[in-house]
Amino acid sequence: xxxxxxxxxxxxxxxxxxxxxxxxxxxxxxxxxxxxxxxxxxxxxxxxxxxxxxxxxxxxxxxxxxxxxxxxxxxxxxxxxxxxxxxxxxxxxxxxxxxxxxxxxxxxxxxxxxxxxxxxxxxxxxxxxxxxxxxxxxxxxxxxxxxxxxxxxxxxxxxxxxxxxxxxxxxxxxxxxxxxxxxxxxxxxxxxxxxxxxxxxxxxxxxxxxxxxxxxxxxxxxxxxxxxxxxxxxxxxxxxxxxxxxxxxxxxxxxxxxxxxxxxxxxxxxxxxxxxxxxxxxxxxxxxxxxxxxxxxxxxxxxxxxxxxxxxxxxxxxxxxxxxxxxxxxxxxxxxxxxxxxxxxxxxxx
Length: 350
Hints:
The protein has helices at about 20-35, 50-60, 120-135, 145-155, 195-200, 220-230, 245-250, 265-275, 305-315, 320-335, 340-345, and strands at about 5-10, 35-45, 75-80, 90-95, 140, 160, 180-185, 210-215, 235-240, 255-260, 280, 300. By secondary structure, it is an alpha/beta fold.
């Protein structure tokens, strides 16, 4: 029997490795275990100035993946913008996200696109590219209902949400319920780790500590913010940690905090639930909110330090309730599997 060949298309930012990269490798591993021959095609992504975005699109558009010297490719799976601009007769898109600056970030404090003189023109071109290239796909999926909603509202593209398990499924464990509040995130503006730091000023629980796992451009500004807010002694910057250390922090924290702006999906709530821990999210955290049922497996707070602090206190001060909510969280995600992903994303097209 001839082994089927599948290519996964990946757009990467040099020196940054995060959830999207873990997802691509998890998908590759799952397909290989299913007996497929799989490889990843990666091209660096640059977005400033906007002209470089169109250059990236051109590189993918000129990528004729049905004409490889190594033989025919049976299926191509595109992921983030602009990977779905590639050319192949059987192209499936699993949309991680579009170029967000052209869409939902417009007019927000995270909009760095509008400062360019021709931003309106570039936005239109990006939207046209998305409609054309996603329209070529034999099927379109998304990571979450939030992304499906964006695709429908912005481009008229219908996409089925397809959830997948977090990267260390099978290794998460539940331990003690300490007074540590865990936040795992890249330290960049959209992740809003500053909200977590500011919230600690209002947390009343004696002995509560914020553990920040992650690195990024805002490392020093966040340390300065902790000093300014007077909470330096209650905030620990863990930086990059090993997988075992990460699993340990999840296992033994009192609750997990995840407060990004309009996130696409987000592994953190899933990792928390698989560790039997409740999650605090904000009502505007996008895809992450799809997994949290307020008062049942976590807390949904307003995006204000005081409201986040109140939610944290409610969990740290009642371990019995936190344990019950963590168990409910585990029940809500325990059936996530790569097998179900492959049954919809891959196998029908081979």
